C-alpha cells in the first residue's frame, strides 16, 4: 500500500488522539465520512495502525520510577535468547525490551513504585535466568516522552 498525503494526515490525527470521531477526521482532511472511514480501515488492515490503546499516567498509578536496565550475557544461542525473551515477557514491570548491538546485549525499561520495588524485580530477574552483567540506570526526570511517530512529510508537486 502506498501512503498519500491524506493517509499521513489521518495517521497523524489518530496517533495524536484516537478518540477523534471519523466525522471530525473527515472534516480535517477534506473527505466525507464514508471514504474517510474506508481509508482508516485500509490503514488498519495494512498494519499501519497496530492497535488502539489508552495511555495511562504512570505517576498517578504509583509507577513513578523508570529504570533502564542494560543486560550482558555470554549466552548467544537461539534457544537461550528465546528463553530469555519468554522470561522477560513474564515481568509486567518491563514496558520495553530490546535486543541491542554494542556493549550490552539487551535493554529493558522497567516501571516500578520505588527503589525497594525495583530491588524485588532485580532479584526475581537474576534468579529467573543466567546473566553476565546487569547495569541499572534510574531516570531522574522524563524530559520528552511521546508515542507519536515522526511521519514523513509529503513534498508539494
- Estimate what percentage of residues fall within beta strands: 15-25%
Q: CATH H level of the largest domain: which superfamily?
A: Lrp/AsnC effector binding domain/regulation of amino acid metabolism (RAM) domain
What is the gyration radius calculated from CA atoms?
A: 21 Å
Number of helices: 5
Low-confidence stretches: none
Could you give the distance between the termini?
A: 20 Å
Strands of the widest sheet, in order across it, are: 2-3-1-4
Q: How many β strands by DSSP?
A: 4
> So what's the CATH class of the largest domain?
Alpha Beta
Estimate the helix proportion, in percent.
Answer: 25-40%
Oligomerization state? single chain
The helix/strand order is HHHEHEEHE
Mean pLDDT across all amino acids:
95
Computed structural class: alpha+beta
Largest sheet: 4 strands, antiparallel
- Topology-level CATH name of the largest domain: Alpha-Beta Plaits
Supply database-style keywords.
4 strands, alpha+beta, single chain, about 160 residues, DNA-binding, 5 helices, Arc Repressor Mutant, subunit A, elongated, Lrp/AsnC family transcriptional regulator, Tscrpt_reg_AsnC/Lrp_C, 4-stranded antiparallel β-sheet, Alpha-Beta Plaits, WH_DNA-bd_sf
Describe this structure in a few short sentences.
The chain is 38% helix and 17% strand. It has helices at 5-16, 22-29, 33-45, 78-89, 115-128; strands spanning 65-72, 94-99, 106-112, 133-138. The protein is elongated and about 55 Å long.
Task: Describe this entry's structure for a reader.
The structure is a single chain. The protein folds into two domains: 5-46, Winged helix-like DNA-binding domain superfamily/Winged helix DNA-binding domain (Arc Repressor Mutant, subunit A), CATH 1.10.10; 58-138, Alpha-Beta Plaits, CATH 3.30.70.920. It has helices spanning 5-16, 22-29, 33-45, 78-89, 115-128, and strands at 65-72, 94-99, 106-112, 133-138. The chain is built from five helices and four strands. A four-stranded antiparallel sheet has the order 2-3-1-4. It is elongated. The longest helix has 14 residues, at 115-128. It has 157 residues and is of the alpha+beta class. Strand 2 and strand 3 form a beta hairpin. Helix content is 38%, strand content 17%. Helix 2 (22-29) packs across helix 3 (33-45).
Amino acid at each position: 500500500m502506498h501512503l498519500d498525503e491524506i493517509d499521513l494526515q489521518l495517521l497523524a490525527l489518530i496517533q495524536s488522539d484516537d478518540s477523534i470521531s471519523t466525522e471530525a477526521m473527515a472534516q480535517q482532511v477534506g473527505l466525507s465520512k464514508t471514504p474517510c472511514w474506508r481509508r482508516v480501515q485500509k490503514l488498519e488492515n495494512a498494519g499501519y495502525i497496530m492497535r488502539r490503546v489508552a495511555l495511562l499516567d504512570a505517576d498517578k498509578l504509583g509507577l513513578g520510577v523508570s529504570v533502564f536496565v542494560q543486560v550482558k550475557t555470554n549466552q548467544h544461542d537461539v534457544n537461550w535468547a528465546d528463553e530469555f525473551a519468554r522470561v522477560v515477557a513474564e515481568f509486567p514491570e518491563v514496558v520495553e525490551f530490546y535486543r541491542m548491538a554494542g556493549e550490552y546485549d539487551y535493554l529493558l525499561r522497567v516501571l516500578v513504585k520505588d527503589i525497594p520495588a525495583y530491588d524485588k524485580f532485580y532479584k526475581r530477574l537474576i534468579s529467573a535466568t543466567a546473566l553476565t552483567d546487569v547495569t541499572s540506570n534510574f531516570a531522574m526526570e522524563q524530559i520528552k516522552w511521546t508515542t507519536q511517530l515522526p511521519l514523513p512529510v509529503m513534498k508539494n508537486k
